[in-house]
Amino acid sequence: MSAAHDPRRRRRLISLAVVLVLLIVVFFYGLTTGSVGLSYSQVWHVLTGDGDTLSNQLVWNLRLPRMLIAFLVGGALAISGCLLQGVMRNPLADPGVIGVSAGGGLVAIILTIVFPTLSGFVPLGAFLGAFGTALLIYIVAWDKGVSPLRVILSGVAINAFITAMTSGIMVLYSNRVQSVISWMTGTLSGKSWYHLEMIFPYMVVGFILSIFAIRSSNVLMLGDDAAKLLGYAVEKHRFFIIMLAAFLSGVAVSVAGLIGFVGLVVPHIFRLIIGNDYKYLLPMSALGGAVLVGFADTAARSWFGSIELPVGILLAMIGAPFFLILLQRGRVTS
Questions:
Q1: Residue 92: which of 271, 333, 258, 270 has the closest Cα?
Q2: CA nearest neighbour of 101 among 166, 26, 11, 41
Q3: DSSP string covering 170-210, please?
Q4: Which terminus of the chain, N or C, has less C-beta within 10 A?
Q5: In this predicted structure, what is the pLDDT of residue 150?
Q6: Residue 269 pLDDT > 90, yes or no?
Q7: pLDDT tens sequence across 275-310
């Protein structure tokens, strides 16, 4: 059946075209917008190697690496949330909800305010914290296998414990808290080519591995019994997907801090439009997450005058009401 006679396929093609256009628009919007505005012509000249000194400085050294990092972080968080929601068959599954992001944040705070001489290891520590938290959740949830419900409940409990530890450390070291406040709320301020080079190889690995998780995610959404009847090693595939989601979330947290709601909201938007098939849902969520974080970061640094708002705050202001609207309309169901 041709795309013209297949409504679902047509929606997918239209959605892909719209998201790609939005990605390009947000990319150039981010490069032109800031405390010093640039025209699209100036940005184009810079990208083609014919820009003036000021434009080159603003685009190449400040805005371009930050925009690319925003795209990678948004894509990683959206894929992470999308994978967790599928493998756990729960619309509330998200790196922030089950504690994976909080684990990365706890390690980062310890390194920053308890052992400030080790602050250079914050990205690595945040990544290892997120990954280790996911592994701990899996171990705690294990009981002759792991059910999605046990993973969610274990994650919520561990998230509460980690949050309490984080608050306690911030109280005990209140004189040093200022250095981590923006990181705790999620920020891309000051990010450069160094940070992009640091996370890029890990992001590429995570995105490639997520391709191999598409079929498993589709099968696991059918339920454990159906997956076993199809010959799938349910526990092995579930462990792989959860660790992959933690890996992507950990890499994102390591450079951007505790950014929430991307993995929770973006997959829901595309489920409503293109359905639950991960062959289409996963890449669309990645593109949608990139658009959302790229736009939100540009707005956060340019819409509030001389004040740069942490992007995590703006995303929470956007994401929370949207999710409540979905819930109110009955779109979020188990």
A1: 333
A2: 166
A3: HHHTGGGTHHHHHHHH---TT--HHHHHHHHHHHHHHHHHH
A4: C
A5: 82
A6: no
A7: 888 999 999 999 999 999 999 999 999 988 778 888
Q: What is the pTM of this model?
A: 0.89
Nearest-angstrom CA–CA distance, 152 and 149: 5
Q: Do the Cβ atoms of 94 and 263 come closer than 8 Å?
A: yes
**DSSP-derived secondary structure letter, 111:** I
> Phi, psi at residue 96, to the nearest 5°?
-75, -35
DSSP string covering 69-94? HHHHHHHHHHHHHHHHHHHHT-TT--
Q: Could you tell me which residue, 317 or 27, shows the higher pLDDT?
A: 27
Residues 6+ apart with CB under 8 A from 33: 298, 302
Q: Which residues contact 107 (CB under 8 A, 6 or more apart)?
A: 125, 126, 128, 129
Cβ atoms of 273 and 17 within 8 Å: the answer is no
pLDDT in tens, 82-134: 998 888 777 777 887 778 888 888 888 888 888 888 877 777 788 888 888 88
Which one, of 315, 306, 314, 293, lies nearest residue 34 by Cα?
306
Give every CB contact of residue 325 below 8 A, 6+ residues apart in sequence: none
**52 φ, ψ (degrees, to nearest 5):** -80, 175
